[in-house]
Design a protein that fits this description.
- It is built from 17 helices and 4 strands.
- It has about 425 residues and is mainly alpha-helical.
- α4 packs antiparallel against α5 and α13 packs parallel to α16.
- The chain is globular.
- The chain starts with 5 loop residues before the first strand and ends with a helix.
Length: about 425
């Protein structure tokens, strides 16, 4: 990585002088966090951007990844999807409020503490559905959803700031790609758990072992998040550090929210993309997968959905970093591809959906609705449709993070940008 660019104190990127390059890599601070290990021909140390990105990815693998896997079952694994709808309404309502201020919270508390506190809510959320299965405690489910909204707002803002501010300018698409692949691999593994445990389950509710496995994994993720290095200790291989504001206060952070829009009005043009980035989850996971397929087929669909996310992130993340094309051209080309994919994939979705029965038929308790199983002949079409829904989501999210990362290299500013993204993203996801 000797030809990478150095991040200066102002956040610009300049080529290192020839004399500096000849002198070799700069000396790192002392301490165990900077003790390097050589893997696959490259040096890595704990407080380095690649390792920290991997750590954040594993936290999201274990927390949001398991949440996605359970949600991909439709109704969070319960036959009655209204329970999950109530929990998610509480979740997205608190998320929409907290995410607006989460950038300020992250800048004051630090990214590590913010991420750690954010991971706690996922275990409580999973536990509430396990409890509901046995005692039908609606209050606990709604409380857990509201708590998760607070925690997730903090976790995703800290994650976004790390992903956009730690890497070099030329590597942001690659870093986003790595994160999204590892994170969604959690969804794949998480989906294989209910697939294996419920492959012969004829009911439409997952068993206790599935919830227990998710509970343990999300708890491990919450613990892991507290082991990250503090942002001010992260050192790149050229010796540069992440740009942080010294001694921020709540007052300066609230002013910073306004300055983020005032000084970079381009962020407003991204708001329509923010608004539409999560609106489809309720439809895809509950109204499509949860309503029209048998339990084991829902688990298989969920596995394919999150696997497609890995493919989409890999393809688009590296394409956005293609060095032989100017960044402005890449940005415009990405927008055109997103537009084309929207019409192609969602056009196919409309063609499938208009042939399905109305929602009242699916929810009619007096007459059991015949849900589609993978052994039936009509399954191949919706299977591929659901796969490409996952692919499209990864392409969309990767592009959004790349666009925001192109606006700033500052840890403080990217935290605010991530907060703006999450508040609009989840505000538009309330069922």
């Amino acid at each position: 990585m000797g030809d990478e660019k150095v991040t200066t104190s102002k956040g610009s990127h300049e080529s290192p002088p020839a004399s500096a390059a000849a002198a070799g890599p700069p000396a790192r601070p002392g301490g165990i966090q900077y003790k390097s290990v050589r893997l696959f021909g490259k040096e890595y140390w704990y407080a380095s951007p690649p390792v920290q990105l991997f750590m954040v990815s594993m936290v999201c693998f274990l927390c949001p990844g398991m949440f996605n896997a359970l949600g991909g079952m439709g109704g969070m694994g319960l036959e009655d999807s209204k329970v999950a709808a109530r929990a998610n309404t509480a979740l997205y309502s608190t998320f929409a409020v907290v995410a607006f201020f989460a950038g300020s919270i992250a800048n004051v508390l630090g990214l590590r503490i913010t991420l750690g506190l954010g991971g706690v809510g996922y275990s409580v959320y999973v536990a509430s559905f396990l409890a509901y299965k046995h005692v039908a405690n609606n209050g606990f489910v709604v409380f857990a959803g509201a708590l998760l909204g607070v925690c997730a707002g903090m976790l995703w803002t800290a994650q976004g700031a790390i992903m956009m501010s730690y890497p070099y300018e030329r590597s942001k698409g690659k870093y986003i790609s790595w994160f999204w692949m590892i994170f969604n691999f959690g969804g794949v593994i998480g989906s294989l758990i209910p697939l294996g445990q419920n492959i012969n389950n004829s009911s439409n509710t997952v068993n206790d072992g599935t919830y227990a496995a998710f509970l343990i994994l999300t708890f491990l993720g919450a613990i892991l998040s507290f082991t990250l290095a503090n942002a001010h200790r992260v050192v790149r291989d050229d010796g540069s550090k992440v740009i942080l504001m010294k001694n921020p206060t709540w007052k300066t952070e609230f002013i910073g929210l306004w300055e983020t829009i005032k000084m970079d009005p381009w962020i407003v043009l991204l708001f329509p993309i923010f608004w539409s980035s999560n609106t489809f989850y309720t439809y895809q996971l509950n109204d499509m997968n949860g309503a029209h397929f048998s339990l084991r087929t829902r688990a298989l669909n969920s596995t394919l959905y999150w696997s497609a996310q890995i493919v989409g992130a890999l393809v688009f993340g590296y394409a956005l970093d293609f060095p032989k094309v100017r960044r402005s051209v890449r940005a415009k080309a990405a927008l055109l591809v997103l537009t084309a994919l929207t019409f192609a994939i969602w056009g196919g979705g409309w063609a499938w959906q208009k042939k399905q029965v109305v929602r009242a038929v699916v929810e009619d308790k007096e007459h059991e609705y015949d849900r589609l199983d993978w052994t039936e002949s009509g399954y191949i079409g919706p299977m591929f449709l659901f796969f490409f829904y996952g692919f499209f989501d990864a392409v969309w999210q990767t592009s959004i993070y790349w666009y925001m990362g192109a606006l700033s290299n500052s840890g403080r500013k990217t935290a605010n940008l991530a907060g703006f993204y999450k508040v609009w993203r989840w505000r538009c996801s309330i069922p």
